[in-house]
Amino acid sequence: MLLTYNGNFMFGGGSGARMAQVYRNNIKLLRKTNRFNSARTFTTTKKEYSKVAGGSVSLKKMSSAQLGEIRQQVLQNRKQDRQKNLLLSTAVFVPLLLLFAYVILMFFANENAIQSNNSKLETAANLKHYNFYMSDAAIWLQQQKVANAIFQYRKAKELFPQKFAVNYKFT
Fold first, then answer.
1. What's the pLDDT at 72?
2. 45-80 core/surface letters (b: 16 or more CB in 10 A; e: else)
3. How far apart are CA 166 and CA 152, in angstroms?
4. How far apart are CA 127 and CA 134, in angstroms?
5. Residues of the chain with pLDDT > 90: what percent?
6. For 6-65, what is each residue's pLDDT tens digit?
7. pLDDT beyond 90 at 77
8. Angle 64-142/146-159 helices, nearest 10 degrees?
9. Fewest CB within 10 angstroms: 57, 146, 149, 169, which?
10. Is the distance from CB of 81 to CB of 36 less than 8 angstroms?
11. pTM score of the predicted model
12. What is the DSSP letter of 10?
């Protein structure tokens, strides 16, 4: 049943809200459609047959064995439809899932490469500072300013505590 509204259509006094409610109710009355199921029903098929036959269609009574065969055929068709839908879903979602995994892996690989590159740059910058501190400490030692040389050796040791040269000269 299609709902209609025969009232004041001015937006005041709740008539606009009533029109929206009528519209929502009409939408709910529409037939729900499914992408995978056809819109063919018994009544639409019967109407098509009667239109082609030029009047009414005489339907014959079927035996229970024939109805059982038809039921088995319908069940088999449903099973085939489910298999097709599953295959279609798998064919769509598996590549999407693989693409998503590939993008995530590339992102993390890129992050690791960036971190590795940053650590190399940081090491290169630290090595430059380390060389400066070592050469500056050597200059201070030549000028016999031991406190300043020790200070520079300490800074060099903070950057590279595992280097043999700074440990040897610092002790």
1. 94
2. eeeeeeeeeeeeeeeeeeeeeeeeeeeeeeeeeeee
3. 10
4. 10
5. 20
6. 554 555 556 778 888 888 888 887 766 666 666 667 778 778 877 887 877 677 788 899
7. yes
8. 170
9. 146
10. yes
11. 0.35
12. S
The two tokens of residue 105 are 């892996």
Residue 32 one-letter amino acid: K
* Amino acid letter for position 107: F
Residue with token string 């319908």: 74
Cα gap 60→29, rounded to integer Å: 34
Q: Binning pLDDT at 50, 70 and 90, where does residue 4 land?
A: low
Q: Return all residues near 134 (Cβ < 8 A) that are at least 6 apart.
A: 152, 153, 156, 165, 166, 169
Indicate the DSSP class of residue 146: H
12-to-3, 22, 24, 25 alpha-carbon distances in Å:
21, 16, 19, 21
Query: CB-based contacts of 163: which residues, under 8 Å, 6+ apart?
Result: 130, 156, 157
Report the amino acid identity of residue 60. Answer: K
